[in-house]
Design brief:
The chain is of the alpha/beta class. The protein has nine helices and 14 strands. Strands 1-2-5-6-9-10-11-12 form an eight-stranded parallel beta barrel, surrounded by eight helices.
Length: 284
């Protein structure tokens, strides 16, 4: 690869605003963060949203409003269909009604710290077929080697994804899933289909080892406050854009500079961004 896809995951569903004041939870904060991250080198934004009380939500009206607002940037808008570990399957499927460019598609159940992130075969298959029908590009989210087998099963049974490109994200360092180290990155990549491309996400203290392993192995990067809240020992992250800037600098040092948003759309097989709607005439 001659360039690097950088995805930013700015919010997530786990951290509380009261504990992490820099976490973007309002729509205005999310859009401001997206713009700053785009300027720093991100090409994709992976989105979780919060309600008025800053709790994780899959409210369809808020999701649609968020997608529309993020269209003010050139970023590929990728909605999480994982939500939080407590969200029902039917709400997770309805995420696609917000018409994002792309979505995450987790390929199996995993122990998620003290919780269980449920993704049985039937749900994953239904979600995958819906993405195909709607032309929404899935990013196959993989937490362990069994998830790679499930992704291959989806591809064998139902054919290629919307856009025709198989792109995965290896989520490394969650207690209960992949370890966040070089050997595990190599083991996971060795099981992927030959045509697949991949990004890697390091959770917490795994963020830097996974970043450097991914760049060395020809992979791409996902960073952000969903996954990492500490920039260095004793120093909290001040904003998502500094995590993106660090990833972009590492990519440049590896002589694989960040992709532009247009390059990312072509790379992922995402449809061109919709044209903005008509501007309302000025009031008389």
């Amino acid at each position: 690869m001659s360039s690097t896809l950088i995805t930013v995951a700015p919010t997530g569903a786990e951290s509380a605003k009261a504990d992490v004041p820099a976490l973007p939870v309002t729509l205005a904060e999310l859009v401001a963060t997206a713009r700053a991250c785009e300027a720093a080198g991100a090409a994709v934004v992976h989105v979780h949203i919060r309600d008025a009380a800053t709790r994780p939500t899959l409210d369809l009206g808020l999701l649609r409003e968020t997608v529309a607002a993020l269209r003010e940037t050139d970023l590929v808008v990728q909605l999480s269909t994982g939500g939080s570990v407590h969200d029902p399957y039917e709400d997770r499927l309805k995420v696609l009604d917000a018409a994002p460019d792309a979505c995450s598609l987790t390929c199996g159940t995993v122990n998620f710290g003290d919780d269980v992130f449920m993704n049985p075969w039937g749900f994953a298959a239904e979600l995958y077929r819906e993405t195909q029908a709607r032309g929404i590009v899935p990013e196959f989210e993989l937490f362990d080697l069994g998830h790679v087998a499930t992704m291959n099963r989806l591809l064998d049974r139902y054919g290629p994804p919307a856009g025709g490109r198989v792109h995965c994200d290896l989520v490394m360092g969650v207690p209960g899933g992949f370890a966040g180290d070089l050997r595990t990155v190599a083991a996971a990549v060795g099981q992927l289909p030959a045509e697949a491309t991949w990004s890697a996400t390091g959770i917490g203290r795994a963020s830097l080892p996974v970043m450097f392993a991914a760049l060395a192995g020809g992979g791409h990067l996902r960073v952000g406050m969903e996954d990492t809240l500490t920039y260095a020992k004793g120093r909290p992250v001040r904003g998502n854009e500094e995590l993106v800037a660090r990833a972009a600098e590492a990519a440049r040092l590896a002589q694989r500079p960040p992709m532009t948003t247009a390059e990312a759309r072509a790379f992922l097989g995402v449809r061109p961004a919709p044209a903005p709607g008509p501007t309302a005439p000025p009031a008389a």
